[in-house]
Design a protein that fits this description.
By secondary structure, the chain is α/β, with parallel strands linked by helices. It is globular and about 55 Å long. Helix 1 (48-66) links the parallel strand 2 (33-38) and strand 3. A 6-stranded mixed sheet has the order 1-2-3-5-7-10, with helices on both faces. The protein has helices at 48-66, 92-100, 104-122, 142-149, 176-184, 186-195, 201-207, 219-227, 233-251, 255-269, 274-291; strands at residues 23-28, 33-38, 75-80, 85-87, 130-135, 138-140, 152-156, 160-162, 199-200, 212-214.
């Protein structure tokens, strides 16, 4: 078992008709927005397959800019095709196997690739691309951490957002501690981290964690409303880009910082007790049964 980088970058000239193995994509020409979603036939966690698709997405955006075609793309929104679920987080089956076999290389490789993706999304893939988390279902653990890494977080009312890692004696290592502390300050971030319970999107909106709140079932429509139509989209884009740049300047979140945290997290995983590993595996079994798909 090892994390393998296995994808072919989409060609710039094929935009917006890009393809991925485990994600679908839809282009909204009025706002120059690409909406990508993990498909309903995949387990909603950051499996190596999903991570390869996200790495492919980042490299494809950079290829578009390298070809001088970057003005065709202003936004990337990432969501899910799975009803009621945005993403359940890290691949707990992968984690528990690595911990059980004490395979540090496997877990550290996975963790560092994950942080590359997280920072890529935060940085707009190194270009003036604005990223939106389109959270139309529950986002827990690493799923919530990934949502936090986007430039803006849009969530539907009633969805659950949380960091349950404390229940198996770990802490959120994939950016959650960093992004929450920047948004809220250390004291309020620690409250969320140590409680381990899920919060509703409405609660997180009141705290300032969720940027935009949508009615249940109207997340995509709300996103398109925010981005505007062909007449207003350019002015809206400039305003949102300034907001994005201001946040990046204030928060100063670097890849090195994220990597330092995730290395501490990965090392801490090897102190997990057998009961914690069993708890991870029970969560995986529950997710798979709910979706009725193979892990």
């Amino acid at each position: 078992m090892e994390f393998r980088v296995d994808y072919e970058t989409n060609r710039a000239e094929d935009f917006p008709n890009w393809s991925f193995k485990l994600m679908t994509s839809e282009f909204i020409p009025e706002s120059k927005a690409l909406i990508v979603r993990w498909r309903a036939d995949s387990v909603p966690s950051f499996t190596p397959g999903i991570m390869n698709d996200l790495l492919c997405l980042g490299d494809s955006v950079r290829a578009l800019y390298a070809a001088g075609l970057g003005d065709q793309l202003r936004y990337v929104a990432i969501g899910s095709s799975i009803p009621g679920m945005f993403n359940m987080g890290g691949d707990l089956g992968y984690f528990s196997d690595a911990i059980a076999s004490q395979d540090r290389k496997v877990l550290f490789d996975y963790a560092r690739w994950a942080i590359k993706i997280i920072h890529d999304v935060w940085a707009g893939f190194g270009h003036p691309v604005i990223t939106f988390a389109l959270v139309e279902g529950d986002a827990l653990g690493g799923g919530f951490e990934a949502a936090l890494a986007h430039n803006f977080l849009l969530a539907e009312k009633g969805v659950r957002l949380g960091l349950p890692e404390i229940t198996f004696n770990l802490f959120p290592g994939m950016g959650g501690t960093t992004f929450l502390s920047r948004r809220l300050g250390s004291s309020e971030a620690e409250e969320i981290l140590f409680h381990g319970r899920p919060y509703t999107a409405e609660e997180m909106f009141e705290r300032g964690v969720v940027d935009y709140l949508a009615e249940r079932g109207a997340g995509t429509a709300k996103l398109l409303e925010i981005l505007g139509n062909s007449e207003t989209s350019t002015a809206i884009y400039r305003t949102l880009l300034k907001d994005r740049d201001d946040r990046q300047e204030r928060w100063q979140i670097t890849y090195d910082e994220l990597r330092r945290v995730v290395d501490i997290w990965a090392e801490g995983c090897f102190g997990a007790r057998d009961v914690d590993v069993r708890h991870m595996r029970r969560i995986v079994s529950t997710q798979v049964r709910k979706l009725a798909v193979d892990p």
